[in-house]
Protein: DNA-binding FadR family transcriptional regulator
Amino acid sequence: MEGQEPQAVAAEQVQRRPRVQKNVTRTIASDICADIFPVGSYLPRENDLCERYGVSRTVIRESLKILESKGMVRGRSRVGTVVCGKDEWNILDAQVLEWIGERIFEFDLLNCILEARRAIEPVAAEFAAERATVQEIADLERAWQAMRDGERDVAGFTDADVAFHTCLLKASHNQVFLQLVGIIQAALKFSLHASNEAAERRDEAIDIHRELVEALRMRDKAAARDCSTRMLDLAARDLATAVKQHSPAKPVL
Amino acid sequence: MEGQEPQAVAAEQVQRRPRVQKNVTRTIASDICADIFPVGSYLPRENDLCERYGVSRTVIRESLKILESKGMVRGRSRVGTVVCGKDEWNILDAQVLEWIGERIFEFDLLNCILEARRAIEPVAAEFAAERATVQEIADLERAWQAMRDGERDVAGFTDADVAFHTCLLKASHNQVFLQLVGIIQAALKFSLHASNEAAERRDEAIDIHRELVEALRMRDKAAARDCSTRMLDLAARDLATAVKQHSPAKPVL
DNA sequence: ATTCCATGAAGATCACCAAGCTCACGACCT
DNA sequence: AGGTCGTGAGCTTGGTGATCTTCATGGAAT
Structure:
């Protein structure tokens, strides 16, 4: 069925907006992540990049500026643009994480993220227990319901889980914690979908999430912290299976 | 037709060198932080910004792209560029923190940073106790020596303190923790210089830092965590005095 | 070995076209 | 008659391409 809307333009449903800029930036970033432009090497001249991606030099330059602002490349005046080491990248930036995508497994990042979550989320849960508004607790409840209802849909479950943890960080009323939602999203996205077969774990996770909501309602800091910790124990198990599945051949440093 | 005479517009002192781009970006960012372009408002058209800052539209556009990539503004196609809410800014980005500068006191950020540091740094210290290389411990020792020797110079002391904590996060061998060096730098920069009068506190801080180095040498996780916690207690006191000094009139949200 | 210069690539500007969001104006329907 | 809705003009950003300027760099000349 070809949707023929009378007034609108016809046969143009793919790219309503010519998002050339975003596309080019993402493409270059992906190419860098894919080691097409290896760390430490200079990438082609701007004019060559124009041809390679079929866009004007302005677009290329703006893309490079964006990548540079995220620490992925460093423009050296009249010399070229060099790819920075991965330890210089702003890996807390949501866009960077998006560009890395599945290659996050090659970054040894998920373990670091889990460690960071263990340090942060229990504390955030404590803060949430004493600071969350009733509205925020209601939002958490809704996110939990979405997790429970979307139990069979992996993507929906992950989204709901991300929403839950985002709400939790919001409820901690700490701007720094809130900024870390990006890495948590990445961690959940790439840890969860591997453990979709273990349904009983999901049930367990759902129970713990509900317990956390209850703890926040009771303003019970200790219980909230405990729930968060147990949540992360589950996440650790999921991560272990995900890593095992995703890297059949372990590349050595 | 406007001849690019050397004097040009005197609105700003940015008008020379190939550093035009960085200067313009920083200037716009500062103007946003200074509420010259309030949150939620549209900033002037790109052509007007060209005149205001005395540069071409290309430079303006690249600057806006950078600011957009850091969540400070959002470009709406063919409509304008709107300033995002401060909670959307990538406040973990070192550049953003630099642009905010002293106005960090108006962001209610320092308290959040301290809370985050309390969650993270003790854990990072534990990791460092079991993961730090001898080289990294030596770097920490040198940073500590710089703190001790630069005792009288406030700027030097702060720099050394920042270097110390940076080394500590590096020694934790956790990429996520390492990314947080930016906020710690900001916190130290704007908390310490206010308490320079309290010399005895600095002595105390220097002692604790040395103790931490010793704990790492002994691979004593508990001691390392304890040192880090006490360090943050001192930081909390410094922050309290800094805030008191720096905000005579408390601005409400 | 030092100095100088040709080279080439990024930095920056300008002029222009494309496309779509706004808004006001006018026609049409109730 | 009045309100709603289509429509088009105009404005603003998105994108292109040509052009000029500025210097890092490396090789040639001294």
In short: Residues 221-246 of chain B form the longest helix (26 residues).
